[in-house]
User: Which sequence fits this backbone?
């Protein structure tokens, strides 16, 4: 048999049928956020019920308030937000779908909670009604986002039609330099290879750097595969994966776990596998990286200067840079470290796990917040762990605001929004125009870099803080 990539192994094991260039795939897990009201509505319209509700999981994350939640859903002040939460509760109750809801002790973001509980496992094919479902590929799963029509189809049949993606492997070697982490890697990678590098592809990340990363760092890498236009991102499971998964409640046990481990160890890409595209990168010279423009590819090392449209290689690139500078109110030649900011957000499905908060706290303890700074844990479990370690006290003492779990300012649809033209350093994944609020100006950065900006009031090289 020809050598296979982990992508092909998982894809082939889930094929049910093929027709007209598309494949009908079995779906092991479907993850739903509050926007799935439309998928549930389609089921109701067609008189259908979920085929396997035990393989569907619901989450309240996009619309939950990150401020005071006393009084429950009924006390949510904004009627439209309250309605979204009420509808999610009603739909999941009616269709017997497990909901990690408003008052659940495991409530949190749909890309944070499943790994915590062992819902995410190697070899699975997972879909979520959110574009950053690729996060779960960090465990050696094939995971991708779907729209509401596909979400309804999966609920009714536990299957989805998809076009087979091209395969791409990005091998990253070298040593991760001081002051950098996974967020810097993925921002630099997208800037280096371009926001369209992964169009139509499933991307496998490999190499010595990837192997050295923790699971939480791997999730950050896979999460932002979508920002490189990838269909999904995946990292082969290894002993780091299995150690992280140990004793998670949704994991199989006993002989079933032994069998699962035997299967998971067959998943890594075979030697001599041929990919549709290969890229080799070395990150030995990586510096803390921050975005300056209106897509993640417009990112630079913190010691760089804002580019000029005149330096562009093409007319299209010239226009893109000019438009980004205009929206971000920046001038060519400005040193990134001269840019003053007005708010900091530490959170999102990219960087709101316990390791992210530990790193941010290590920096926060060095000063006091100069601008409003929110710290929003990715889940109730993360919040409890952070409080047990005293991280919340560190943040509060530094003048940061310690908030409730959810998507918060990343999606800006729960009432948390930037003011008009407010400039924010954010650990989230998107810096598109208006992403965090009308005319909001977003600079993407790592948790350490975001905390450094908070205590200095400007973009700051965290390495200078020791």
Assistant:
């Amino acid at each position: 048999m020809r050598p296979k990539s982990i992508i092909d192994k998982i894809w082939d094991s889930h094929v049910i049928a093929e027709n007209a260039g598309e494949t009908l795939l079995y779906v092991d897990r479907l993850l739903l956020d509050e926007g799935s009201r439309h998928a549930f509505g389609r089921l109701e319209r067609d008189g259908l019920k979920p085929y396997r509700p035990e393989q569907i999981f619901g989450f309240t994350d996009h619309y939950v308030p990150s401020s005071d939640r006393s009084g429950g859903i009924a006390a949510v002040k904004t009627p439209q937000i309250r309605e979204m939460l009420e509808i999610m509760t009603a739909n999941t109750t009616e269709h017997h779908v497990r909901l990690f809801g408003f008052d659940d002790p495991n409530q949190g973001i749909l890309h944070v909670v499943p790994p915590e509980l062992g819902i995410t496992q190697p070899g699975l094919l997972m879909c979520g009604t959110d574009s950053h479902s690729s996060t779960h590929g960090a465990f050696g799963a094939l995971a991708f986002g779907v729209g509401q029509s596909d979400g309804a189809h999966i609920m009714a049949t536990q299957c989805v039609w998809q076009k087979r993606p091209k395969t791409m492997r990005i091998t990253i070697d070298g040593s991760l330099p001081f002051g950098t982490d996974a967020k810097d890697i993925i921002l630099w990678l997208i800037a280096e290879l371009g926001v369209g590098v992964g169009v139509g592809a499933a991307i496998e990340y490999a190499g010595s750097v990837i192997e050295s990363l923790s699971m939480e760092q791997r999730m950050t890498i896979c999460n932002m595969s979508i920002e490189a236009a990838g269909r999904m991102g995946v990292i082969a499971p290894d002993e780091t994966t299995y150690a992280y998964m140990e004793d998670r409640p949704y994991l199989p046990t006993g002989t079933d776990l032994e069998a699962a481990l035997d299967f998971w160890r067959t998943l890594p890409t075979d030697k001599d596998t041929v990919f549709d595209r290969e890229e080799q990168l070395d990150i030995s010279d990586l510096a803390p990286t921050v975005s300056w423009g209106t897509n993640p590819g417009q990112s630079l090392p913190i010691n760089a200067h804002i580019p000029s449209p005149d330096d562009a290689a093409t007319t299209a690139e010239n226009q893109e840079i000019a438009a980004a500078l205009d929206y971000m109110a920046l001038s060519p030649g400005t040193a990134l470290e001269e840019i003053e900011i007005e708010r900091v957000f530490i959170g999102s499905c990219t960087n709101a796990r316990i390791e992210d908060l530990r790193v941010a706290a290590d920096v926060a303890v060095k000063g006091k917040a100069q601008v409003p700074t929110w710290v929003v844990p990715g889940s109730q479990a993360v919040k409890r762990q952070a409080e047990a370690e005293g991280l919340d006290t560190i943040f509060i003492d530094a003048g940061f605001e310690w908030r409730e779990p959810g998507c918060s300012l990343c999606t800006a649809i729960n009432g948390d929004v930037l003011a008009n033209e407010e400039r924010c350093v954010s650990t989230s994944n998107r810096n598109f125009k208006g992403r965090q609020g009308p005319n909001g100006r977003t600079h993407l950065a790592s948790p350490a870099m975001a905390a450094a900006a908070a205590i200095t009031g400007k973009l700051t090289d965290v390495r200078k803080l020791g």
Observations:
- The chain is about 30% helix and 15% strand.
